[in-house]
Amino acid sequence: MVPFPKVIPVSVTPTSSHSIHPETEQSGAHQIASLMDQMRTKDALVMQLTERLEAAAEQLDRLQRSGADKARPGGGGGGGSRELVEQTGQLTSRVEEALECWNQSSGHYEFILQRLDEISQHIFSTPEGGGGEARAARHVSSQPPTPSNNGSAPAGGAGQSGGSFWERMKASMADGSPPPVSPNAKPATDSHEQPHDPENAATDESIAKQLAVIEQVTPAPTVIDLDTASIEELREAVATRDNYISALIKEFREIQFLPSLPDDFENSGLAPAELLTSLKELENRFKTGIQRENFELSLERARMGRERSRLDQVKAQLEGQIKRLAASVPERTDAAPSSSPQSSEPSIAEGKLSWLKRLQPKKPQG
What we know:
Blueprint: H1 22-66, H2 79-124, H3 131-142, H4 154-175, H5 204-215, H6 231-257, H7 273-338, H8 341-359
Helix pairs in contact: 3-4
């Protein structure tokens, strides 16, 4: 609130009632001018505030009509986006964990398959005499364990020994150590008491024959360039590859039908250390070659399947085009005989007459 100026009292003498001091008149005029300036400033300020208030009222009215003043569910406007970001982050972390497990699973699967292959070779390499006992031990070990009394039968002891063997086998698989010796394997002291089977017993001649067959490895075919090779070269390469695969399968079957070697080379006098080392190397080489050839054969089959499907698609398209062409040819042949020479002559004559009529001069109207 603007304070009012103080009024200066003016002394009036009784002798001069109409006389005013000039300084008093000047101060009063100055005060009046300042008051007028303050009133004009106040009016301008009130007008500006009124305009600002009207603009704010219009903006508030627009916001109310558009519904922007209503509160969104679930908190403020940024709550939903924060929740979405958190859910996306959790989903991304789970996907990364799944990808890591997927990449690690291939190595675990390869290790498990390798260990299972070693176990199967160790089990099925037992002689015929111990096959029944091994099967019995596997059957007993597969059954759930039951509490046994002190006076149990010998079969129970065999089952327990079989179960402990399988437990040791699983422990060795988890640790990555070599598999334990089978409990069905007879010790070396009992070998002279039981007679050997002459059909399963390995001799120097059978070992030499088997090594000769193993060393006769068919050479792999030469690699050709798929980009620069012609169709005939590709056909010859496919035929050579198929022959190579057939030769490998034949050699593998010949090795399978050869007489079996002793199970335990360390306790047998027929297998020296050099022979054992060479056999292991040959076995690893054959396994690697067979796995590689099977993998390449599966890839080739997949490629040939895709090529065959593409050729079938092209064949179907060509058959469809042939059918459409065959369907359109009879229509043209049927339309051609309909226009006979007899019918074409009147049409030509009519056309000539019409042209002659048009060329004739018009008669002047009387």
